[in-house]
Amino acid sequence: MTANLLETCMKELRLRGFRLTPQRMVVLRVLHEAHGHLTPIEICERAQEMLPGLTEPTVYRTLNFLHEQRLALAAHVGSGQLVYETGERDHHHLVCRKCGATHEIPHDLLEALFSQFQHKTGYQIDGMHVTFFGLCPGCQDHQ
Amino acid sequence: MTANLLETCMKELRLRGFRLTPQRMVVLRVLHEAHGHLTPIEICERAQEMLPGLTEPTVYRTLNFLHEQRLALAAHVGSGQLVYETGERDHHHLVCRKCGATHEIPHDLLEALFSQFQHKTGYQIDGMHVTFFGLCPGCQDHQ
DNA sequence: AATACTATTGCAAGTAGTTACAATAGTATT
DNA sequence: AATACTATTGTAACTACTTGCAATAGTATT
Question: Terminus of chain B with fewer CB atoms < 10 Å: N or C?
Answer without folding.
Answer: C
